[in-house]
Amino acid sequence: MKPIVLVLFPQEYDELALVPLEASHSEYEFVREGFDLFTFPSNARLLWFNVELFVQKLARKYRTRKIVAVVSTHEQFGALAASLVAEKLGLPGAPLKGLLTAQHKYLARQIHLDALPDNVPPFCGFRYDADVTKAITINYPIFVKPVKAAFSVLAKRCTDEAALREHLKFRIWEKIIIKRLTRPFRRVSVKHIDCEIDADCFIAEGCVDGALQFCVDGYAHNGTVSILGTIDSVMYPGTNAFMRFEYPSQLAPHHVEKLEAVAKRAVEAVGLTHGIFNVELFFDPKTERITIIEINPRMAGQFSDLYERVDGKSLWALELDLALGKTPVWPRREGQFGSAASFVFREFGDAIKQPPPEQGQSWLINTYPDAKLFLDIKHSTSRARETKWLGTYRYALVHMGGTGHDDLMARFANVCEHLDFDGKASPETVSRWQILRRSF
């Protein structure tokens, strides 16, 4: 039997990248393990999920097979599980303590305050049921988020104490879900890192208003940190909701160099010595100050094909190299396109979305063969929960490339003319698309 590459908690865009990867590495069997965190009944496993038990079961399940690599892009459970499996089997992987430190937003802040004091905002930690009058020790407005979370869940800007109290009003079932989401990390972290603020707590940070947001991607190999590139994280105007992720960055090259230098030092400070990482940062164009948002100690799966379109190699191919213990080789600007983006479709109100008609989807495939449409349409309770926790509802992604930034935007504007998620091409629908096009 073929040696196994274990893929933990794969997501939809991961599966797209895995198809050519499996074809080019036919000497391995790629085995998926994990469950979908957002689809019932699969997500019911969240109620009793124990990551350490999950790892033990995997070891037993494949004890007669040879596992040669373990990979994951999943922030909530996958990256942690992959690190535990790699440690247990003696495989190359992200060091457990470094991964836990990076994912623990409060502890990472403390470390960066010592290592990069000019790149850290004021911050404090508190429990969701604390007396916020006493617990919040920094000035409003503040940006609040869980110490351990993913997908921007429960992250919100609060202008004053009243807004914070309103944000922290959770129903019983919401408290249960929050605790179940953090429990795997909490159980492992208490054994390996020491911090007075645990995974069930929140972190409040001083707001960095007027700044632009970026992602710096890179990897560590044998303790050496290397940078892959910088991606623009563009928001819907007047919100903190992502509108598109574009590579390469449109920021001036000398500013990109400074962002990448801060990201490199931030990763080194938390002890990430192996694996792909993604560092989120703010850049204030007026003061040129750079502020660290957080480190994601895993590959950003959503960006994998953006790099492939521009540089000629997917992040997934790099991920597999690192997991197999191979010395990475990364090309530069050898892809088909000069620019690429992941465009995010969001609903800010109560409109119900549905998949575009087959005719529209066929038009997309025929007109732009490189474009990929990912549908993320939810209904009733799931949609309402996402809107409450995130402030918006993400219902689709479109990934595509262009010869350069202007061509990319023109191509996407054409896509907006042809994809209808509202079920009717009414004047109101056309008007909304025109507003969306101007925003992009």
Summarize the structure.
The protein is an alpha+beta fold and 440 residues long. It has 15 helices and 15 strands. Mean pLDDT is 90; it is low at 425-440.
Textual characterization of the structure:
The relative contact order is 0.11. The N and C termini lie far apart (50 Å). It is globular and about 60 Å long. The protein folds into 3 domains: 88 residues, Dna Topoisomerase Vi A Subunit, Chain: A, domain 2 (3-Layer(aba) Sandwich); 85 residues, Dna Ligase, domain 1 (2-Layer Sandwich), CATH 3.30.1490; 228 residues, ATP-grasp fold, B domain (D-amino Acid Aminotransferase, Chain A, domain 1, 2-Layer Sandwich). Helix content is 39%, strand content 23%. A hairpin with a 6-residue loop joins strand 9 and strand 10. It has 440 residues and is an alpha+beta fold. Strands 12-11-8-9-10-13-15-14 form an 8-stranded antiparallel β-sheet, with helices on both faces. The chain has a 4-stranded antiparallel β-sheet with strand order 4-7-5-6, sandwiched between helices. The C terminus is likely disordered. Helix 2 crosses helix 3.
Helix and strand arrangement:
Layout: E1 4-8, H1 12-24, E2 29-33, H2 51-61, E3 67-71, H3 78-89, H4 96-103, H5 105-115, E4 123-127, H6 132-135, E5 142-146, E6 156-158, H7 161-167, H8 172-192, E7 201-206, E8 212-221, E9 224-235, E10 242-247, H9 253-270, E11 275-283, E12 290-296, H10 304-311, H11 315-323, E13 339-347, H12 358-367, E14 372-375, H13 380-390, E15 393-402, H14 405-418, H15 427-439
Parallel strand pairs: 1-2, 1-3
Antiparallel strand pairs: 4-7, 5-6, 5-7, 8-9, 8-11, 9-10, 10-13, 11-12, 13-15, 14-15
Helix pairs in contact: 2-3, 5-9, 14-15
